[in-house]
Every structure is written in C-alpha cells, then in structure tokens.
Amino acid sequence: MFFESWSGLLRVLVIGPLAYGALVVMLRVSGKRTLAKLNAFDLVVTVALGSTLATVLLSKSVALAEGVTALVVLAGLQWVVAWLSVRSDRFGDFVRSEPTLLLRDGRFLDGALRSQRVRRDEVLAALRSSGVASPEGAAAVILETDGSISVIEAGGNDSMASLGDLEASAP
Questions:
Q1: Are residues 89 and 114 located together in one domain of the fold?
Q2: Is a pLDDT exceeding 60 seen at residue 53?
Q3: What's the predicted TM-score (pTM) here?
Q4: Which end of the chain has the least Cβ crowding within 10 Å, N or C?
C-alpha cells in the first residue's frame, strides 16, 4: 500500500524528468495557445495533457516514447484546431461557443440562465467575488466561453463597451 518496489520509484525518478522535459519542449514549440483556456476545447486539451503526463509517470504499461507521442499528438491537434479556427470563421464557430449575457443593468436574464444551466446564486457568488454588493451594482454578468463568469460593474458610459456583439443580442 505505501511501498511496492524500488524499481517503481526509480522508474518515476527517471521517466518523470524526461517526460516533463519533453512536455516543456513541446509546449515551447507549440506556443502559448496550447495551454490557454480561451474556450472549452482549450480546457479539455490542457486537462488531457496533464492526464497523459500522469499516466506516463505512474503506469508501467506506458513507455516513455508512447507517452511523448501522445503529448505531441494532443499539442499538434490543438495547434491545427487553433490554426483552422483563426483562418475559417465557419470552423471557429463550430469549435468555440459564444459568451452569454446572464445579467444586464441589474436584471437577471432568466432565459439565458436557464439555457446555460446557471443558477442565480452562482451569479450572485460571482458578483460577491468581484466586489459587487448587489445585482444593481453590475452593468453586466457574462458566462465566458471557458465557463468562467465575468462581472462588469455599473457606472460610466463606457461600462458596456467590452460587450461587443453581446449588446446587440441582449433583450
């Protein structure tokens, strides 16, 4: 339970730095976007990279070469998807979601909350963590494409400038 063998520890001590080094090199070559959390797809790739690294470290049935190949495949696919989504609006629309306005000018948008499966108390928690005391103190609350919630405080004529196309689609 606490210790199986010295060979297992030795494997982790040898494979760990090699796999980690391969991951660092691969991330440097593939660019910052590989670990960005700009949308749900990016988040899935980041989690898959971590899971793959853990499997390489801890599973005796996965050779280092296989694990490094899996990491390269994941990073390569992420690069291809990002490249295509930048060059093709149609492809980009297919792989990424749009942000959703959940609250505007202190009013909850119940249809948006329902369609995105977000509860009012979750929006209130996001308001509190942003230092906004009440819904009336927020110009907008947005469910971002990566699943995070952004709060724009009320006040000033420019408070809604960052909403872009969301402003046009708001009820």
A1: no
A2: yes
A3: 0.69
A4: N
Q: Is-contact 35 71, C-beta < 8 A?
A: no
Q: Where among 75, 94, 113 does a domain terminate? A: 94
SS3 string, the chain, reads CCCCCHHHHHHHHHHHHHHHHHHHHHHHHHCHHHHCCCCHHHHHHHHHHHHHHHHHHHCCCCCHHHHHHHHHHHHHHHHHHHHHHHHCHHHHHHHCCCCEEEEECCEECHHHHHHHCCCHHHHHHHHHHCCCCCHHHEEEEEECCCCCEEEEECCCCCCCHHHCHHHHHCC
Based on the domain organization, do 16 and 33 belong to the same domain? yes
How high is the pLDDT of residue 41? 77
In angstroms, the CA 153 to CA 138 distance is 4
